[in-house]
Amino acid sequence: IDYRHTTAEDLVAADEKFDAVLNMEVVEHVADPLAYLTACHDLLKQGGLMTCSTINRNPKSYAMAIIGAEHIMRWLPKGTHEWSKFITPDELYDLLRQAGFDPVDRKGFVFNPVTWSWRLSEKDLSVNYVTTSIRPN
Fold first, then answer.
1. How many domains is the chain partitioned into structurally?
2. In a domain? residue 56
């Protein structure tokens, strides 16, 4: 595994190409999600795969990701997230298509506070969720 401290845009400028891009909990922090996802698209070889996780934008996600994770549990520093920058699953699919991707799957990450565990859900995308997209040939 080759870890680099850089930006997607700098890698595109260097004409780097990858089989896969893991875009985990980033897109809700960037100034221009479409430009960022387009750069991620340009990093992939044809047929390459991108996994993108982010946070949905609704009252439950505000309660869980900001009030719960930042203020109550203190898993993250206060102010890490800006609720207005959260992206609904439909918005993300639209952005992915505009960036040239073919979205193929999405699932929710659901936290169970009783068992203190996470699971993937086919139906519950209400807070954290992940998408899989392909750069078409």
1. 1
2. yes
> For the segment 79-134, what is each residue's pLDDT rounded down to a tens digit?
999 999 999 999 999 999 999 999 999 999 999 989 999 999 999 999 999 999 99
Beta bridge partners of 131: 52, 106
DSSP characters for 39-89? HHHHHEEEEEEEEEEEE--SHHHIIIIIIIIIIIS-SS-TTS--GGG---H
Contact of 101 with 135, CB cutoff 8 Å:
yes
Task: Flag whether the pTM goes above 0.70.
Answer: yes
Domain that holds residue 108: 8-134
Specify which residues 132 forms β-bridges with: 51, 105
Question: Does a structural domain hold residue 3?
Answer: no
